[in-house]
Amino acid sequence: MKVIVAENYEEMSRKAFEVMAEVVKNNPRAVLGLATGSTPIGLYKNMIEDHEKNGTSYREIKTVNLDEYAGLDYSSDQSYVYFMRHNLFDHIDIDLKNTNIENGKAADRAAECARYNALLDELPRDIQVLGIGSNGHIAFNEPGTPFGSVTHIVDLTESTIKDNSRMFASIDEVPRQAFTMGLKNIMQSKKILILANGANKAKAVYGLVKGEVTENVPASILQLHPDCTLVCDKAAASLL
Ligand code: PGA
Question: Would you say residue 165 has pLDDT above 90?
Answer without folding.
Answer: yes
